[in-house]
């Protein structure tokens, strides 16, 4: 008897610097657990972030802003991403870096407004008449080509749909046959066809076929209940930026010249305030009618000290708008010059009038035991085995240099361990790698010592 192991067909994701973060790691009372959901320490900052998340969920915080301030490598971006995880997929989260506003194609204010609109979601509820079921028959009926020639054209398509309650045979327009071909619909797939528009949506393969051998990873769905022809509530999530783009770039004609024009045209088009005002009117009308619901999301601006005085003044107006997201800023600067205003020195490089609007969350440097926990967590995330001695050595390096540098040494140490014929990282491997690479402080010392050898 042959026993085979079935390997998962789920794609493995590449590991990034914050892959291990799954949430804020708070208990049911909103009190932070020392190490949970990928976060370690920073209890005060996490508890404050938890309160902000609750305010966002209860929709009591639109148009407010939070500033996360602390030294480099203290988990500001990690806490912001943890907030996004806590809010879930349905709440838009738009991360950006302060320097993104300096574009050669479009204005600084346009980049900011574009990201503001990306962070505001709209949940549209529609009741549609649909035909839904498992495809039992799919027969295109061909006739002679009316234009002459040898080819034949599809005059109509016969499709059989089955649900738990009954079956129905439909005779559909040839344009729907094209949609079925595009969606790669086959017998045994569960689909729904909108009665008024003829749009086809393939939901997956019927779970009665789940036992079959399949090369590709298929999504199996249960057989729909109720009648084949029914009224169905369809919920669609879009952002205001999606609506802006859809209306700013209407599709041209189908001739070659207009298609070429669309290809040649620059991808970045500035969206006018007039167009946005019109879209806002339509959105407000939908909200008043109860068709749509506004979902204010989170705009995260990292390295906010990179913005200049013009963008800060624009932020005031944007935050006061009736439809504004929650803005989370992050910076690692202390007192410094406000960019674009040489005579203004301000805390965190932000003008004082903007600082007045912010709730400030402070992150503190990690202790050595916390660094050891983070390094261990990263090793687990990256699938590496590490000894306790090597862990204490790396946390020691982290306290002398930076946590980021200590984490960077993990992968080279693992490769050195493999070369030396070991399955887990030891203190010797860390020491060996430490001699090959330099951190910023060591490099600065060497630079000071051999200053004359470097180019002036």
TrEMBL record:
SMART domains for this protein: AAA
SUPFAM superfamilies on file: P-loop containing nucleoside triphosphate hydrolases (SSF52540)
GO biological process: cell division; DNA recombination; DNA repair; DNA repair-dependent chromatin remodeling; negative regulation of signal transduction; positive regulation of DNA-templated transcription; positive regulation of gene expression; regulation of canonical Wnt signaling pathway
Pfam family, one: TIP49
UniProt KW DNA repair keyword: yes
Family: Belongs to the RuvB family.
Name under which the protein is recorded: RuvB-like helicase
